[in-house]
């Protein structure tokens, strides 16, 4: 999932896409149907990139992208306005290691609302460009290991030459 450039702005509902940057902040466009534009001043607004957001976990924090991936395969997703008990049950399905004391119902509602906004967008099903595909990376590693094994015996047989320093000339 490619969430690069998607941000949440403090004090503003919904999600925003970063279009451009100027000296004072960012030009943002809402992801809803209205496509409203906003200039977020960095001195007054706080921006949080969705690809960097984590949820409190019992042992380690859980990446929001991992929760979204689990939500894709979930049987049914409750409405963001459902009661806290239903939301908590759902969150135990998609993020079983979340910390019950630190993750509030309002946080769960926000995550579900964000998912509802993102799920129909094409970028939600794209691969993240910052993460290399696992299938393509594995053969490259094996090939480099094979090359190193062939090159190693040849370098071990060749004697190593020591570089001699020329004596410094006095002026």
Automatic annotation (TrEMBL):
<feature type="region of interest" description="Disordered">
    <location>
        <begin position="152"/>
        <end position="171"/>
    </location>
</feature>
<dbReference type="InterPro" id="IPR041218">
    <property type="entry name" value="DUF5606"/>
</dbReference>
<protein>
    <submittedName>
        <fullName>Heme degradation protein</fullName>
    </submittedName>
</protein>
<dbReference type="InterPro" id="IPR049280">
    <property type="entry name" value="DUF6852"/>
</dbReference>
<feature type="domain" description="DUF6852">
    <location>
        <begin position="53"/>
        <end position="118"/>
    </location>
</feature>
<dbReference type="InterPro" id="IPR049281">
    <property type="entry name" value="BVU_3817-like_C_sf"/>
</dbReference>
<feature type="domain" description="DUF5606">
    <location>
        <begin position="3"/>
        <end position="50"/>
    </location>
</feature>
<dbReference type="InterPro" id="IPR049282">
    <property type="entry name" value="BVU_3817_N_sf"/>
</dbReference>
<dbReference type="Pfam" id="PF18347">
    <property type="entry name" value="DUF5606"/>
</dbReference>
<feature type="compositionally biased region" description="Basic residues">
    <location>
        <begin position="161"/>
        <end position="171"/>
    </location>
</feature>
<dbReference type="Pfam" id="PF21186">
    <property type="entry name" value="DUF6852"/>
</dbReference>
